[in-house]
Amino acid sequence: MADQQRGRRAIEVGPTGKTVAANIARLRERRGLTTRQLSSVLERAGRNVPASGITRMEKGERVVTVDELAALAVAFGVSPTALLLPLTDRAENRVEVTGGGEVDALAAWEWGIGRLPLTVTPGREKTELVEHRLFGAPQWLSEHVRYSALAAAAAPAAPTEGGRKAMDEIRKRYKEQTGEDIDPDVMLNRLLGVDEKDGSDG
Question: pTM score, two decimals?
Answer without folding.
Answer: 0.70
